[in-house]
Design brief:
Helices cover 0% and strands 56% of the residues. It has strands at 5-6, 10-12, 18-21, 24-30, 32-33, 40-44, 53-63, 66-76. It is globular, with a radius of gyration of 12 Å.
């Protein structure tokens, strides 16, 4: 199987998230990611960073070897 897939332990935005409205974000990643829906998950800016928030993924789409997440933040951790 040549397609990339991954099972992340956190949403890692790499500063590529797009703010859709007050507290809803859209993130597009390369490859196929398997994420939990409607459960809390850590949110990190980069892989090496500590989590800066807790979020909930409301929508998960796979298209053209990409994962598209729609999520909201439920709790901020520390100072942004």
């Amino acid at each position: 199987m040549s397609d990339q897939y991954f099972i992340p332990q956190a949403i890692i935005t790499n500063y590529k998230e797009v703010n859709k409205d007050e507290n809803t974000y859209l993130l597009i990643e390369d490859g196929y990611g398997i994420y939990p829906l409607d459960e809390e998950i850590r949110v990190k800016k980069t892989k090496e960073d500590r989590p800066h928030a807790i979020g909930i993924i409301h929508k998960l789409e796979w298209e053209n070897k990409r994962t598209i997440l729609t999520f909201s933040l439920t709790k901020l951790i520390g100072v942004n």
